[in-house]
Amino acid sequence: MTSKIAMCTAVIATFGAIFAYMGGATQANAGIYKNNAAIKKTEASNQWNYFQSKSTKQALAEFARDTAADEARKQGWQAKVARYEQEKTDIQTEAKKLEAEASKWDAKSDEQMHQHHRWAQATTVLQVSIALAAIALLTKNKWLERAMFGVAVAGLAVGGLAAFHV
User: Residue 11's domain spans which residues?
Assistant: First the structure.
């Protein structure tokens, strides 16, 4: 019984170490992806601020056009109004594109965090299995030995869920 439990404990500890590494890696990825999302959100915000400045300029140009005394000045201001309108359309398109990119990075981060939690759960269950193995060795209880194997299988199953992104 002792050598069998010792061998199983070594195997369980090896899987636990791998699962712990994967948990850390997915957590780091989640942080990187969340950072990328924040950068894209900031870029989108900058675009929306630029859009707002063009809107203000357009409003001033419309006011100047509407209060201009002669037709030549009205035409000049109207050309600026049209230019600002086109620029706003381009800026808005870019801002929406950046917001979509931020959403994609957020989704990737959420997926990695979910996977991280699975790896952490698997690692914890395997640690419980190792603790049961130690108690089984000390007490020579058969039911604790069986519990250790059962919990180890559960930990490996949760690790399998993490590996397959479930």
Answer: 1-164
